[in-house]
Specification:
This protein has helices at residues 13-16, 49-63, 81-86, 91-115, 137-145, 163-173, 207-212, 220-228, 243-249; strands at 2-5, 29-34, 68-73, 120-124, 133-134, 149-153, 178-183, 188-189, 200-206, 233-237, 254-258. The protein is α/β, with parallel strands linked by helices and 262 residues long. Strands 1, 2, 3, 4, 5, 6, 7, 8, 9, 10 and 11 form an eleven-stranded mixed beta sheet that branches. The longest helix has 25 residues, at 91-115. The structure holds uridine-5'-diphosphate (UDP).
Length: 262
């Protein structure tokens, strides 16, 4: 296990020894998972169009490096099933509302990307043929081949899951080389860096360590799915401008979760 002090210093690639996933040249196809909160900017709720446009420009820049790009966006900026359940709602019902929230975010991102001239398709795990396609893997393949970004919405299409699991599932079935998880923190820490100033960031971690220590990278089912399919999880901050490209070329600050022994 590699620990690093909480600092903005770039990682030393040689120390990482992860040439298989470093540098965009080694990625053919990636899945980028963004939490819904990324779209709300400085608001406390909902979708901020300026922020969506900024993130879309970063996604376009990543795509322009020649990558095939799948996108999964959460719904936490609008609705989370757990929050509804905590207030007395039926959990499954609340989760379906959460899934619908992810479709709204997907449509917002599609709109922003297409305003930048990027071809996209939204595929939802809950069919709604007036607004998007259903998830059809072979069709998604074709979209990627044609240079379109495929935005997968509604997670796995079932309650009691999250969009992290949806991201892991789509990354596996689309045979992505990595799952890039853009969050508000620049990696995985041994404590909450917002509360504990001495918190240390891991450079690399094994899936098993994440699961045994219950580290908050993604939910356990998502981590297990990535482990079983050997998909590296790259955790980075999407809040800093230009970070997607930096992660792709290996110059950014991030944590990589792989099979590696701790
Ligand atoms: N959700 C679900 N099944 C899925 C994906 C999502 O039930 O396969 C619901 C769940 O209620 C979740 C909400 O949709 O809380 C929004 O997704 P998530 O919490 O993953 O969004 P994020 O935290 O990434 O913004």
């Amino acid at each position: 296990m590699a620990l690093r002090s909480y600092s903005r210093a770039p990682l030393l690639h040689l120390q990482l020894g992860k040439e298989d996933f470093m540098a965009s040249g080694h990625y053919r196809r990636v899945l980028l998972k963004l939490s819904g909160e990324v779209l709300m900017g400085d608001q406390s709720f909902g979708i901020d169009p300026d922020t969506v446009a900024r993130v879309a420009a970063e996604v376009k820049a990543a795509k322009d490096t020649g990558l095939e790009l799948c996108l999964v966006i959460g719904g936490g900026n609008i609705f989370r099933g757990m929050a509804g359940a905590a207030k007395g709602m039926d959990r499954a019902q609340a989760d379906y509302m959460g899934m619908l929230a992810t479709v709204m975010n997907a449509l917002a991102m599609q709109n922003a990307l297409e305003q930048l001239g990027v071809q996209t398709r939204v595929q939802s795990a809950i069919e709604m043929d007036k607004v998007c396609e259903p998830v059809i893997r072979r069709r998604a393949e074709r979209h990627l081949e044609k240079g379109r970004i495929v935005i997968f919405a509604a997670g796995v299409g079932a309650p009691y899951f999250t969009t992290d699991s949806g991201a892991a599932l789509r990354a596996a079935e689309m045979k992505c080389d990595a799952l890039l998880k853009g969050t508000s923190v620049d990696g995985v820490y041994d404590a909450d860096p917002k509360k504990v100033p001495t918190a240390k960031r891991y450079e690399t971690l094994s899936y098993d360590r994440v699961l045994s220590d219950n580290l908050k990278v993604m939910d356990a089912s998502a981590v297990a799915l990535c482990r079983d399919n050997s998909i590296p999880i790259v955790v980075f901050s999407i809040r800093e401008q230009g970070n997607i490209l930096k992660v792709l070329d290996g110059s950014g600050t991030f944590t990589v979760v792989t099979q590696e022994k701790d």
